Amino acid sequence: MYYHNIHMALQEVPGEISVCFSISGCQLQCEGCHSPFLWKAKTGKKLTEAIYLEILNKYKGLATCVLFMGGEWHPERLAYYLKMARNKGYKTCLYTGEDAINPTVLKNLTWLKTGSWQAELGGLDSSTTNQKFIEVQSNTQLNHLFIKTP
Ligand code: SF4
Questions:
Q1: Structure pTM?
Q2: Which of the residues 56, 95, 108, 140 has an alpha carbon 20 to 30 A from that of 80?
């Protein structure tokens, strides 16, 4: 599993401060993709267990959630890393362009965002979006948290 960047994200998971890992190798090639640099597999740096653990330890007490942007194409490694995060007290989230994911990954997630990018439908802040933001345990769709009230 390779990553392009690791950054703090404040809006992707409402109410949480997330450490966000952007993973390379997305095959979906959505038209208008905001991150085409993520398409090519094995670009960026290898996300070794040692680097991952170092980041988890560094942000413990500062961040509340670990967020993966992609990586579902490495289901076993992703599930393992999500479990590590949960064991350290983090909540977990995956942003995927797929509509469904591997059950082992799913069971280690607090939240899941599904659906490809379709510009004409808009993202999570659009009432016409194809994307869903779901609380996994209760299987509740929480898109309303992204809609701004005028
Ligand atoms: S799922 Fe995301 S990263 Fe992948 S092609 Fe679509 S918009 Fe780009």
A1: 0.96
A2: 140
